[in-house]
């Protein structure tokens, strides 16, 4: 099965439709599937639901799709650095399902493992628990959280071999690994593709069985979310 495609638009061909649920990797500006998000924006699909730790920042990451009003719902744990996201939410223009960070990662992992739901203490007694089933285990209350089964997963990896085995770089591993497993189809952009057999089997973070399509997205610009500087000390 050929997994390598020439560009993001080709890799997403036939997969996009209005109203779909997309699981996206990344954390802030780290490990974002930038090329795939740009292609989704260019496609014009709308009424999308994204399951992602955050929505990027203004005009970066999923933030680009917020600007073009292609996102109708976010399932996220953190939304604090995106003013357009905040504006749309406060104006009632977008639906937001807040989800604790660890719970969101586990919901993706559960979906990838075929687990429809699990119980957790996180969120008990808060707004997170509203409308959810509560069950007692060993004298403690737990709430039922549903696994995420996405129509499409888009992720960013550092290296891949020709069969789709992936290696993530440092903190870019964050949500990319669980997100990749929970989509019916997983499309990956990578910085480098190496020959099959050249990756250390013990160093592979995600087996190629989860990956259906790949592109090489390099080169990338290193974007900094907050630039903090100080005056240079006198010699």
From TrEMBL:
Tagged with keyword Transferase: yes
Family statement drawn from the similarity comment of this UniProt entry: Belongs to the 3-oxoacid CoA-transferase subunit A family.
Protein's UniProt name: CoA transferase subunit A
Segments forming a coiled coil: none
InterPro entries membership: 3-oxoacid_CoA-transf_A (IPR012792), CoA_trans_fam_I (IPR004165), CoA_transf_BS (IPR004163), NagB/RpiA_transferase-like (IPR037171)
SMART domains linked: CoA_trans
Organism (species): Croceibacterium selenioxidans
One GO MF term attached to the UniProt entry: transferase activity
Pfam families in alphabetical order: CoA_trans
Matching Gene3D superfamilies: Glutaconate Coenzyme A-transferase
Keyword field: Transferase
Top-level taxonomic group: Bacteria
């Amino acid at each position: 099965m050929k997994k390598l495609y020439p560009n993001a638009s080709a890799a997403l061909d036939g997969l996009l439709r209005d109203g779909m649920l997309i699981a996206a990797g990344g954390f802030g500006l780290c490990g974002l599937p930038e090329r795939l998000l740009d292609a989704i924006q260019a496609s014009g699909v709308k009424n999308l639901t994204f399951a992602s730790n955050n929505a990027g920042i203004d005009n970066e990451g999923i933030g680009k799709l917020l600007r073009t009003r292609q996102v109708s719902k976010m399932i996220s744990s953190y939304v604090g650095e995106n003013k357009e996201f905040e504006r749309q939410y406060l104006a009632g223009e977008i639906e937001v399902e807040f989800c604790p960070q660890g719970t969101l990662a586990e919901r993706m992992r559960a979906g990838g493992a075929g687990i429809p739901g699990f119980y957790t203490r996180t969120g008990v007694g808060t707004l997170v628990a509203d409308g959810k089933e509560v069950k007692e285990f060993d004298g403690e209350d737990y709430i039922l959280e549903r696994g995420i089964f996405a129509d499409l997963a888009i992720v960013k990896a550092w290296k891949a071999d020709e069969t789709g085995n992936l290696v993530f770089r440092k903190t870019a591993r964050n949500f990319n690994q669980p997100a990749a497993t929970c989509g019916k189809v997983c499309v990956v952009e990578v910085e480098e593709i190496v020959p099959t057999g050249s990756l250390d089997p013990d160093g592979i973070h995600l087996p190629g069985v989860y990956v259906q399509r790949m592109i090489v997205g390099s080169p990338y610009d290193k974007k900094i979310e907050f630039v903090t500087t100080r005056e240079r000390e006198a010699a």
